[in-house]
Amino acid sequence: MRSLLLAAVLSFPALAHAGDIAVTEARVALAPPGARTLAAYMVVANAGAAPRALAGVRAEGFAMAHLHHSMEKDGVAMMAAMDQIEIAPGGSVAFAPGGLHVMLMGPRKALAVGNEVVLTLIFADGAEIAVTAPVERIDAGS
Amino acid sequence: MIRLLAALLLAAAPAAAQVQGVLLDDPVEMPSFALDGTATTRFSDADLQGRWTLVMFGYNSCPDVCPFTMQNLEAAWSETSLRVRPDNIPQVVFVSVDPERDRETVADYAVFFHPDFLGVTGRQEDIDRLVEASDSFYRLMPPDSSGYYEVQHSSSVLVIAPDGTLRAKLQPPFDPGRTAEFLSMLQIQYRREMIQ
Ligand SMILES: [Cu+2]
What we know:
The complex is a heterodimer. By secondary structure, chain A is mainly β.
């Protein structure tokens, strides 16, 4: 219980707000050995009356970051880059394991649990939101 | 018998008919192959004999799907371990289809998900024999400007019986309860078949 509470407190900085957009549950998955790329997950909610579109992302400490979507086609697992991700008014988009993810490429140093990555979400209208994502070990079902 | 098992599986999960595995019509012989992880971890066709084996294909640089699959497989495997006889607990083997990049890391990669998991890779011809015999698939994609490349690969997991033949394939998302159910039914069917 104590570690659960601690985790909740530690992940508090992962909440970011900018106007009608709120980002919650931002986290970077602890990479298994051999990983050259990492994945970040979050929930982006649009409380505004107009649709918004996520158009890109920057990540401190990485050479590149892309909006990606994992999918399965005819029993084959693959990934595709997303140019834009629409978020409807009052809606939200969840980045979660096995689906949408921020693909973090070329880490400048190895990351451990407890490290933080600053992600800057870039919207199609030019707005930017910075969010701090802690590195976590992500288990099945979380 | 195969049809009967399929019927039982459907009856077991009437509400959510989410299929966790596909039974092969006939057992498929596996070819001879020799793969390894560290100097002491080896995995060859001889290791298929006398125990159940689950084989997943993937690559270590995969940021999202491979860890997700391994975690789900770990949960399903743990659930299965609670339900089946200890000698029927399957050996989980992660086979990297990207030996160029993963040779040094593949053993640690598998252990990251569970200490009992085996991670191996090897020569392309050995990997290809296993991939082809199991009607699986992988493809190294063209590298980007930094030299990084993605790998597309089959998402299903091979279920190999103690006689060394491929019997079924598990399908993502490997729901723990349903996957354990599927595997224990498959094992019961296999034991009956061996007695006949
Ligand atoms: Cu990706």
